[in-house]
Design a protein that fits this description.
The protein has about 150 residues and is mostly helical. Helices cover about 75% and strands about 0% of the residues. It is globular. The relative contact order is 0.11.
C-alpha cells in the first residue's frame, strides 16, 4: 500500500502540470459527462438537442484527458489492490445503496461545478473563493452528519 504522505505529495505535484501547463483543474466529475456525451448518441440520434449540457464536455483536450485520468485511476486501484492483497469490503452496503450514493455524489459535484478533487485540490491551489466555500461546506456537512449519526446511535 502507498503511504498517505507520499500519495499526498504526488497529488500535490500533479498540480504543477495541471494548473500551469494545461491551465486546468485536477478533477474527475466532468469525465462522466464526457463519457455520456460520447455514448448517448448511440441511444438517441437527437441527443445533442435533448441534452445539450452533456455535449459541452465533448470535443476539447480537457474533456478527454480527464476521462483518461478516471480510467487510469480505476486501473491503478485495481492493480494496487491486486499487489497489496487488500480487497474492498462493502460490509452492509447493497449494490443499490452504492449506486444511489455515487449518483447523488456525482449530481452534487455537477451542481457545484466540480468534484471534491477539483475544488479541494486545484480550486484551493488557485485560491478560488468558490472552492473555499465548497470545501468548507463539505466539511460542515460531514461533521453535521457524523454528529447526527452519533446521537442517533446513543
Amino acid at each position: 500500500m502507498w503511504s498517505p504522505e507520499i500519495s499526498g505529495v504526488v497529488i500535490g505535484l500533479l498540480q504543477i502540470p495541471t494548473l500551469f501547463l494545461m491551465n486546468d483543474c485536477l478533477g474527475t466529475s466532468s469525465s462522466y459527462c464526457t463519457l455520456l456525451g460520447l455514448t448517448w448518441p448511440a441511444v438517441d440520434k437527437d441527443a445533442s438537442k435533448h441534452t445539450p449540457y452533456l455535449f459541452k464536455y465533448v470535443g476539447t483536450t480537457k474533456d478527454y484527458w480527464q476521462l483518461a485520468l478516471v480510467v487510469g485511476i480505476s486501473i491503478g486501484s485495481l492493480v494496487s489492490s491486486f499487489y497489496s492483497g487488500v480487497r474492498p469490503s462493502l460490509s452492509n452496503a447493497s449494490a443499490l445503496t452504492c449506486f444511489v450514493g455515487g449518483f447523488l455524489l456525482l449530481l452534487g459535484a455537477r451542481i457545484a461545478d466540480g468534484c471534491t478533487a477539483g475544488h479541494g485540490i486545484s480550486g484551493i491551489a488557485k485560491l478560488a473563493i468558490s472552492s473555499f466555500v465548497t470545501v468548507g461546506s463539505m466539511f460542515l456537512g460531514a461533521i453535521g452528519l457524523a454528529v447526527l449519526r452519533a446521537s442517533l446511535h446513543m
